[in-house]
Recover the amino acids of this structure.
């Protein structure tokens, strides 16, 4: 009877970066294969640019997860145009020097983007046909997130699409 009068409200499920795929870079055999990785920036229209700036200033609540490395950091350095991350404290934006690990924090989307773009490439080389006159040197690259995090709250309906597209970019 009590459950009917006070139904349980479940929060929306968290969106975690480890659940989203990160595109992997292809294997390299020749230097000429790297030419496709150069990106020419398109011209940006003023209205689109202003909308992008406003989008970057929106508040997003995230929790950066502790990594499995032996001496995992307790904070993640994050700078945007020489300014440390702005964190919402008691309704006011306060500039810090880093984002804390392991606790929910509300910051601006531009700082979340910087953390999401922080990736590390693990490189492994293989030599095939070592005994032949033309041995092949192959380089395998594996890209992973530097600081995995969960998006706890983002009021913008484009959040999941934005974050998925952001993580898919190799760069």
């Amino acid at each position: 009877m009590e459950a009917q009068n006070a139904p349980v409200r479940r929060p929306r499920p968290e969106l975690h970066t480890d659940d989203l795929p990160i595109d992997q870079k292809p294997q390299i055999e020749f230097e000429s294969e790297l030419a496709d990785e150069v990106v020419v920036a398109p011209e940006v229209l003023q209205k689109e640019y202003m909308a992008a700036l406003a989008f970057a200033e929106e508040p997003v609540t995230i929790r950066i997860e502790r990594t499995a490395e032996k001496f995992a950091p307790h904070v993640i350095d994050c700078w945007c145009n020489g300014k440390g991350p702005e964190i919402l404290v008691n309704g006011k934006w306060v500039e810090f020097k880093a984002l804390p690990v392991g606790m929910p924090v509300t910051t601006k989307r531009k700082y979340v983007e910087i953390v999401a773009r922080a990736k590390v490439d693990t490189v492994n080389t293989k030599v095939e046909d070592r005994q032949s006159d033309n041995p092949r040197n192959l380089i395998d690259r594996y890209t992973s997130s530097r600081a995995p995090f969960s998006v706890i709250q983002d009021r913008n309906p484009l959040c999941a699409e934005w974050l998925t597209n952001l993580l898919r970019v190799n760069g």
Remarks:
- The longest helix spans residues 46-56.
- The longest strand covers residues 119-128.
- DSSP finds four helices and ten strands in the chain.
